[in-house]
Design goal:
With about 475 residues, this protein is an alpha+beta fold. About 45% of the residues lie in helices and about 10% in strands. The longest helix is centred in the middle third of the chain and has 28 residues.
């Protein structure tokens, strides 16, 4: 069981909604922008995952201009959790009154946005925007189910994909709020109202909303400062670019209408689309297999007992034989950036380590079928992999949310072959040569190719994985890997 992660049936849930900003520009005006900002493609929506956000209070008093923001943020978090609970209870059908519930959360998010003052120190503003983006991402994910919303999704798989987009924001919210509280005890700036960066803040908040809104349904967290570059920073009509941490530039316009600034972001429908959407099937299959392992383990009863009932052990063996990694394998995308692929493989290795500790433990006689005696090492190995899964998955989703998707690699590509080799190595290290689990791919698995580049024709290729030779043969669109070990 993965501690700290909410999984209802097969629905991965994540909390919702927000838009954020920050920065400074001496030429920017101090008039608060119109809160009803628009985006050519974007807007706030919602998603689900109920987490109990109990932040740690700081010992020093919170600065007055941030106290209201922090209180409102936790109120929005609680509201999102309540909506998520209702969605979980009726999934895949939307609960009655969902549209009204989401509108109420969106209004609270607007109030939170209004409570964010301009003129904050850069690190404080960035921390506040991150908190806001956590909530915005969650709301955008949940809003995918709104029958009167822009997406109005009904397909369970599409809904789960959107809900998975909000999971990192839901998990990180408490830590992000705690960090802001720590920063909020510092002395305030001399004159926040006189800060020249209020319009920059509005632009940043509008950008967060655009990157989380339809058709993205969440997934963007402002983990780094969003740089605002003004192309024309004078007059009643201005324009510029927001530079994202990955270098992507998004154009925006601001217009002064009836004494209020309105921000419009110009974002392509596919621009900076988080890989989280692409990894959602993998996350879903990981959750399902993790739950199946929990179910199988439950038949053993009390794992702390000095011995286990032999009948329960046989039932456990039967449950393990029913488990299938094929769906997880098929959901692993090839062609990801090296760091993200390593994170995906680490999550995969957590599952394989836990499974092989049990499965090979039985076949290697580590469960005594006569007395029911259990070898402690088997249980300890499985428990260690189980305990690591939640953190490894959260780290993977964090990376995925910041990486633009390029469509991945074709099944017959070398990238796909490399992933197949790494997957096979995980099985070898955990279950080959009489191993009983224990290998987690905490370091990237090195794959070196020994032959000429792969062609489009079916072909066998050779190489080494962690200095062990292997052969890989393309059978249709599937790579069959043989590692020459033991």
């Amino acid at each position: 069981m993965r501690g700290g992660r909410v999984v209802v049936v097969a629905v991965a849930i994540a909390l919702v909604a927000c838009a954020c900003g920050g920065g400074d520009d001496a030429s920017a005006p101090t008039t608060r922008a119109d809160r009803s900002t628009t985006t050519e493609v974007g807007g706030s929506a919602s998603q689900t995952t109920a987490t109990a956000a109990s932040t740690t209070a700081t010992t020093a008093p919170i600065r007055g201009e941030l106290a209201a923001f922090l209180d409102l943020a936790e109120d929005v978090d609680a509201s999102l959790g309540a909506v998520a609970t209702r969605i979980n209870a009726t999934f895949p059908e939307p609960p009655d009154g969902l549209h009204g519930d989401l509108l109420a959360v969106a209004e609270s998010l607007e109030a939170l946005r209004d409570a964010l003052p301009g003129g904050l120190d850069t690190d404080v503003e960035a921390a506040a925007i991150l908190v806001y983006s956590d909530l915005d991402a969650r709301l955008a994910a949940l809003a995918a189910m709104d029958p009167l919303g822009e997406l109005a999704l009904t397909d369970p798989d599409e809904l789960r994909a959107c809900f998975a987009n909000g999971s990192p924001a839901a998990r990180e919210f408490v830590e992000d709020v705690t960090r802001l509280r720590e920063l909020a005890v510092a002395p305030p700036v001399a004159d926040a109202a006189a800060g020249g960066d209020l319009l920059d803040l509005e632009v940043r908040l509008a950008t967060v909303g655009a990157l989380n809104g339809a058709p993205r349904c969440g997934g963007f967290r402002a983990t780094e400062v969003l740089a605002v570059d003004w192309v024309d920073g004078e007059g009643d009509e201005r324009d510029g670019r927001v530079v994202l941490p990955d270098g992507t530039q998004l154009a925006f316009d601001v217009d002064l209408v009836d004494g209020r600034w309105s921000v419009t972001t110009h974002i392509d429908a596919d621009a900076n689309r988080p890989t989280g959407l692409d990894l959602a099937p993998f996350v879903r299959e990981v959750d399902a297999l993790d739950a199946a392992l929990d179910s199988a383990t439950a038949v053993l009863g009390d794992l702390a007992a000095p011995s286990l009932d032999p009948v329960s052990i046989e039932r456990f063996r039967t449950e393990l034989e029913r488990l299938d990694f094929d769906a997880v394998d098929d959901a692993m995308p090839a062609g990801l950036p090296a760091e993200l692929e390593a994170a995906v493989v680490l999550v995969y290795s957590d599952l394989v380590s836990r499974y092989t500790a049990y499965d090979n433990g039985i076949h290697e006689g580590m469960f005594d079928h006569e007395s029911g005696e259990v070898i402690d090492d088997v249980l300890a190995t499985a428990a260690a992999a189980d305990a690591a899964l939640a953190g490894d998955l959260a780290a993977m989703e964090q990376l995925a949310a910041a990486v633009p998707s390029d469509g991945g690699a074709a099944p017959g590509s070398r990238d796909a072959a490399s992933l197949a080799v790494r997957r096979s190595f995980v099985w070898l290290a955990n279950g080959g040569c009489a191993q009983t689990g224990g290998y987690r791919a905490v370091e990237p698995i090195a794959v070196d190719w020994l032959d000429a580049p792969i062609t489009d024709e079916p072909v066998r290729v050779d190489g080494t994985v962690e200095d062990i030779t292997f052969s890989a043969e393309l059978d249709g669109d599937e790579w069959i890997v043989a590692i020459h070990a033991c």
